[in-house]
Description:
It is a single chain. By secondary structure, the chain is mostly helical. It has two domains: 3-87; 115-242, Intergrase catalytic core (hpI Integrase, Chain A, Orthogonal Bundle). 50% of the residues lie in helices and 9% in strands. The protein contains nine helices and five strands. It has helices spanning 3-16, 21-40, 50-63, 68-87, 115-126, 131-142, 147-151, 183-193, 212-224; strands at residues 158-161, 164-170, 176-180, 235-237, 240-242. The strands form two sheets. It has a three-stranded antiparallel beta sheet with strand order 1-2-3, with no helix packed on it. The longest helix has 20 residues, at 21-40. The protein is elongated and about 60 Å long. The termini are far apart.
Amino acid sequence: xxxxxxxxxxxxxxxxxxxxxxxxxxxxxxxxxxxxxxxxxxxxxxxxxxxxxxxxxxxxxxxxxxxxxxxxxxxxxxxxxxxxxxxxxxxxxxxxxxxxxxxxxxxxxxxxxxxxxxxxxxxxxxxxxxxxxxxxxxxxxxxxxxxxxxxxxxxxxxxxxxxxxxxxxxxxxxxxxxxxxxxxxxxxxxxxxxxxxxxxxxxxxxxxxxxxxxxxxxxxxxxxxxxxxxxxxxxxxxxxxxx
Length: 243
């Protein structure tokens, strides 16, 4: 491997080493988007200048058409990466220091799905041939979990407390809470788990752990399966799903 690629790999490892758990997974995913963009444009990440980072932001906004909150989050990851490069003396100056961030509204402009819309979504999930669909919608819509919490849940996290079935949920900051399972959610989980005794509760079509991207695709697929809720009306993020 060329020396410059080894330096980039070392810089990435040093940056990601500051995080753990789901935060590390999501940060790595966002950084990978930037590194892939650099590769597609023939740009060495450690040779980037401010105008290159501005171009990346424009690409996120105009080509990928991400929401301001997503653009701001992904830019924050790039800023953090270059800050660590400066701290570790890999770079003298960060090319991302003076890049303007998009304005993010204090409150989300998108509302949660209405009662009829959610009924349409859960009906489509219940009748889906994929049992993970109903479990996903139940965990998000009935239990109120975030997408990363639902996708990160394991069969080993299921248990019983005082005669009630519960799910051990790992939230932001690694905080662990026990969430009681309503009967409908418990049945949905049982369908998804089947005869398995270990591994993730939610799996993708390749029988591996469902991640937030696969979960978003499944939700949009379900939305198009029911006329009451179109795919363009559904917005999904780490905080759940909104219409």
